Amino acid sequence: MHLDRITTRTLLDALPGVAYVVDLEGRILACGQGPWREFAEANGAPALADPRVVTGRTLTEFIEGEAAREADACIRRSLLLSRRDRVAYDFRCDSPDRIRRMRMHIRLLRDGGEPQAFLYQSLLLSERQRPALPLFAPRLPGLLDEESPIVTACSYCKRLRHPSMLQVWLTPEEYAGNGGRNDARVSHGICGDCYARVNAEFFGEPERS
């Protein structure tokens, strides 16, 4: 096989974890097929399992919460404007009955020194079962009552801000143990701890003590 016949998809399939390439404007150019399909199906999103469904769409369509979308855009901008060519951060990607700890690597790809695209690679660090939490189950729009409470989930650590304790962020297990409702509507944001960590790691701002 000649090297010039190896496709981007073949290379992405060879990388560990879920890998995909995003252009400088944030559009998905290519995905590794096998890992992408497995991850989509494991997270209750079979409609997105075929990489052709997401190719050409913007990455922000698949990031929940305005704060997390803006953080991702800031990371890409910082890579373009700084001497760094890669960043990495840990996050959680839970399903109703599993706790998954992940690490995301984002690398700026250059050709002749000129930025061309970003390589995203999501690696599974650990996974363990837990009693199912229906709050994390996929839901169809319109099924939840508008009177249901709104619970904010941190896009990075998956802690939840309980409606009756707005200054406190609880793990999903603590939320369930404190009588948290499973019919709540989930919005996404970034907790104070993760916000400080993101600023310190990516943008050079010191964490506040």
Could you explain how this protein is built, in words?
The chain is an alpha+beta fold and 209 residues long. The chain has 2 domains: 3-131, PAS domain (Beta-Lactamase), CATH 3.30.450.20; 134-189, no CATH class. The protein is built from 6 helices and 9 strands. Strand 1 (18-23) and strand 2 (28-31) form a beta hairpin. The relative contact order is 0.13. The mean pLDDT is 82.
Throw out a few tags for this protein:
single chain, 209 residues, alpha+beta, Beta-Lactamase, five-stranded antiparallel β-sheet, four-stranded mixed β-sheet, 6 helices
Reported by name, the CATH topology of the largest domain is Beta-Lactamase
Gap between N and C termini: 56 Å
Write down the Rg.
Answer: 18 Å
The topology string of helices and strands comes to HEEHHHEEEEEEHEH
Main beta-sheet annotation = 5 strands, antiparallel
Query: Biggest sheet: strands side by side, in what order?
Result: 2-1-5-4-3
Q: In the residues, how many domains can be counted? A: 2
CATH superfamily of the largest domain: PAS domain
Proportion of beta-strand residues: 25-35%
- Assigned CATH architecture of the largest domain: 2-Layer Sandwich
Structural class: alpha+beta
CATH class descriptor of the largest domain = Alpha Beta
Number of strands: 9
Can you give the helix content as a percent range? 25-40%
User: Residue ranges: pLDDT <50 for 5 or more in a row?
Assistant: none
* Large-scale geometry: globular
> Helix tally?
6
What is the mean predicted local confidence, pLDDT?
82
